[in-house]
Amino acid sequence: MNADKLRFERSRFLSAPPDAPLLKRNFSGVFRKATLGLLLAAGGFHSNAQCDPAGTASGNFSSLGIFLGSNVTNPSDARDGDLSTYALFWQGFGAGFLSTHTLTVNMVGNGNQTDQLYVKAELNGSIISANIFSNLSVKYYFTDGTTGTANIGSSLASWGLTIGGTTTNNGLYLDAPGKQFSKVDIAFVSPAAVSISGELVRVYEVKRVPAQPAAPAVTGSGTTISNCFSTATTYTITNPSSSLVYKWYNAGTGGTLLSTGTSYTTSATLPNGTNNVYVEAVAANNCAFPTQRISASRTTASVTVSICDSDGDGVANSADLDADNDGIPNTLEGYNASNPAASRDTDGDGIPDYLDLDSDNDGINDVREAGGTDANGDGKADGAVSANGIPASAGANGLTPIDSDGDGKPNAYDLDSDNDGISDLRESGNTALVDANNDGIVDGNVDTDKDGIIGSADGAPTTWGDASDPVLADTDGDGVPNMRDLDSDNDGITDVREAGGTDANGDGKADGAIAANGIPATAGNGLVVADSDGDGVTNEKDLDSDNDGLSDLKENNPALADANNDGKVDGTDPDGDGIVGGADGAPNTWGDANDPALLDSDSDGIPNIRDLDSDNDGVNDVREAGGTDANGDGKADGAIAANGIPATAGNGGLTPLDTDGDGVSNDKDLDSDNDGITDVRENGGTDANNDGRADGTDADGDGIMSSVDGAPNAWGDSNDPVAIDSDGDGRPDFRDLDSDNDGKSDLVESGNAAAIAGDLNNDGVIDFINNDPDGDGVLTPADGTTTWGTNSPAPVDTDGDGIPDYKDPITGTKKDIDDTPYKSKDTNGDGRITSADTGGGTDSDGDGIPDIIDADNNNFGGLGSNIGISAKAFLRGAFQGARHKDVSANWLNVLQQFATSQPYNTAAFGNYAGTESVPASTFTSSSSSEEDVVDWVLLELKKADGTLVDRHAALILENGNIVGTDKVSRVYFKALPGSYHLTVRHRNHLGLSTELITLPAAGTSFDFSTATDATLYGTSDAYTTVNGKVCLIAGNANGNGNVRYNSTANDRDAILNYLGFNEIGFIMGVYTPADVNLDGNVRYNGAANDRDFLLEMLNFNEIGFISQQIK
After folding, report:
1. How far is 827 from 402, CA to CA, in rounded Å?
2. Domains of the chain by start residue, with CATH
């Protein structure tokens, strides 16, 4: 209160001297706060200097008469702090009136405005009567120059003072707001015409003292506590003042002092009922009375102690078999009947387990950990409580606590109930729980309601029991809560592995001895499960731990059944360990067995499930799986579902692509299309050591090497470019068998001879039957090493322009397509298949080979090695020797007697099914050219053992050149470079085969017309020579591979048969094998007849014959 005040108090009667009994009176005035904290001197009082700043005191006497010896003596005794000494107003003998005694006290220092002024004085009652009591006055001065006066006057009753009576009032305060005392005058005026002598007034003390404090407010009062626990209750002064002392008593008045201080703690064993203590506030505790001021009353602080019924079920703990109603009988919770205080206390929180709703303080109430029912989440088992205190839902005898991991510690007392190394607290799914120090225990030690549920775990922190306790998380919805589930998301990967724990024996549980708190040694205080992709779902609950769009199941063990593609293993869980179906190595025993370590395809130390580039080929998994990653961060786009899978990846994640069908999905395949060129090279990555993996380090641990990581110091990629698509056909090079669409397969253009040789069926894909022992997706012929990774050479760059051949359609100045059977498909002359230039070409099987050149539109592959052969031969039936400069006659051409489609689709030629055809204009004759068409021939390529590799119908020209249907191109065979027999066959001539000739990838030429016995298969009887040129023997009119004039199956009869056995008849302008001399006519007799030509082939030996000698 910002004011000084004046107060008078009446004193008791004192003994008077025998000659003059005195009526004593005590007056006190305005009090101000004195200095506190100083101890009294031994046996005495504080000095004024200690309890009120020093000052001066003086006395004065004045009168209108003569009074000898009148004076104010010893004025300084009114400021010496000694109540036994005083300043005396003395009146001598004399005569007169209006004599005045004045005591002046000057105060120094800037006193506190809440102080009061204290004055103690006595009046001589034998001299001064009540009617002159008013002659005593107190005038006080303030530091601001204003004054105030207190006169007794006729208001004696209002002051509560009487002469010789009793005090009916403690005094009257005079307010002087905002003032501070500087001086006090105490004056006594004698009545007129009174002649008295002797002591009039004694002034013992004048000083500033503290204001009387108010009764203190108390915090902690009015509570009710059960005597189940310690009844110790602490009361605290609300907003205590440092200038006051608080004293606690056992009674409202008087009583025994219990303690001094701002707080007080009761006994730990208070009796039942209400227990009170009382506290008062004391000002200037170290100053002598009356400086010390005490609050007018004491404040009562109380606590009510009730009988012990912890769970409030109406059954006292002493008779309650389940004293906390968690469904677990006391006897199974370590209750010590003979000494309850010695009962087990698992979490050491001072509340024994049998009274603790969360005995291990893991944030999961015991009722849930024991498998009980708690629908309302109050921490207590549901149902009516029996007479013995057990809730109905717990059964007649209570719950038997579950020990999921079999470590001897039931779940309710086990911080890791499934021993997966992840604390139950983390697996509970209760995000409100706080465990900053990762000790598996809820942080804090505040348990106001003493129910054993601490801090953030308690939904009703001031009421015994919980409220709305969340149901335990069951991420995969298999009925086994995560804290008891060894595979919480059912992705086939045990939680201990997803948390990075140690599980050498593969039993799904963290290794090491089990600590007293139930956590395995190798897990420390419990594994902190990473959230690799930062999506807010930790890995053990995340079906796509790296957000690459591929489910963890598919990335780690795609062999596990997931028919509905939900990212979870299909099947049942008979042992209830949370590991389902094929993922459980011990399906009938809790736990796993021989669980394999997490798959780490590229051996970079980051398992595939957390690796954004699982094979380290420089192509992020999301792109290799065909996912959407518009921002190039290496993660599939879209909002993250509750199961951790990005929206664009669908409910169960992307289905991994296996472009080449080798059983290794692209995300784990260093050569996704088996074209012999590693993905890292096809996507433009750096691979200086040829190991098929992107070079560099991985500082941020996202599995993407620095040379291809757009964010090398942050988990994830940044601005990852779209996979290279050299030919723009919509299929990235690493999945495209002809990356430049030039009609030559990438395999052939790679220049890797070993890889090319591995394409046994010549479809542009290395064959993968049992030849990838290291499982890196690079097949042995192209691999170069037996360990994961490769040692394959860089693709060739023939023209040295920095663009490898496989994506360069023009090598130097030459268009590669011109050296293929598909030259005509490049209608715009850019060196590529025109219809596929902008992705417009149909590619039914998605192998990057347009259907128009794909030999197998239904299966991956179909663009093998096409070896072009320039062959030359002459047909004896048309060959004219020197007459036409060693060129064949083109009579059929002249007569326009050609088949526009190849004629070898007969049994004699194995029903060749080629579709070669030409327009009629092809056979237009030009007298100035030696390149007119003579006829169709059939070229065949065979292995050393005679196995047919490929064959094509082609045109043979006048000059002997055998060409494609465009009359220009070489004939192309789908064959790998190697050694082969080349055979030329004709519809009525005996065929010829070469000995084995070597065919390089670039192709070769062979001239049958200049061949020798050494270069031709068979003997010289298999061919004829005219003018030094080797020619195919004519006359095989019946197509049986022999030339005969007589005997069975002779060709003469075939000619005659064609003429209807009319020996003198002939047919002109026909295209038939019976026309052995190829002049367009069939004659048996007469000029240029075919019979005589047949006989000529046999050297006119009518009984001779010649057999075809081909491979």
Report:
1. 77
2. 57-209 (2.60.120), 218-305 (2.60.40), 797-864 (no CATH), 867-1110 (no CATH)
List C-alpha distances in Å: 495 to 420, 484, 490, 986. 6, 11, 9, 72
**Of the candidates 343, 278, 265, the residue with the CA atom closest to the CA atom of residue 310:** 343
pLDDT digit string, tens, across residues 209-262: 777 889 999 999 999 888 877 889 999 999 999 889 999 999 999 999 999 999
| Rounded Cα gap, residues 771 and 755, in angstroms | 12
Distance of alpha carbon 935 from alpha carbon 315, whole angstroms: 113
- Whether 879 contacts 1025, CB under 8 Å: no
The structure tokens listed for 289 are 């009375």
Q: Is 769 exposed, middle or buried (0-12, 13-18, 19+ CB in 10 A)?
A: exposed
> 10 Å Cβ neighbour count for 963?
19
Instruction: Look up the pTM and report it.
Output: 0.57
Q: With contact defined as beta carbons under 8 Å apart, do 815 and 826 qualify? A: yes
- Asked whether the beta carbons of 132 and 191 are under 8 A apart, the reply is yes
Reduced to 3 states (helix: H, G, I; strand: E, B; else coil), residue 394 is: helix
Cα–Cα distance measured from residue 890 to residue 906, given in angstroms and rounded to the nearest whole number: 24
Instruction: Say if CB 473 and CB 481 are below 8 A apart.
Output: yes
Beta bridge partners of 888: 879
Listed residue (374, 450, 474, 366) closest to 410, CA to CA: 366
Residue with tokens 């120090």: 437
Measured in whole angstroms, how far is the alpha carbon of residue 530 from the centre of its chain?
6
Question: Taking a C-beta distance cutoff of 8 angstroms, is the pair 246, 260 a contact?
Answer: yes
**Opening angle at CA 1019, ends 1018 and 1023, nearest 5:** 100
C-alpha–C-alpha distance, residues 863 and 799, integer Å: 23
- What span, in angstroms and rounded, lies between the C-alpha atoms of 265 and 502? 50
DSSP label at 943? -
355 vs 352: CA distance, rounded Å: 6
Name residues of the chain where pLDDT drops below 70: 1-54, 95-97, 109-115, 122-136, 151-178, 191-196, 285-291, 768-770, 836-840, 881-890, 892-897, 925-929
Q: Residue 626, CB half-sphere, CA atoms under 13 Å: how many?
A: 15
Helix (H, G, I), strand (E, B) or coil at 162: coil
pLDDT digits (tens, 9 = 90+) for 114-132: 567 777 776 665 555 544 5
> What's the token pair of residue 697?
């380090």
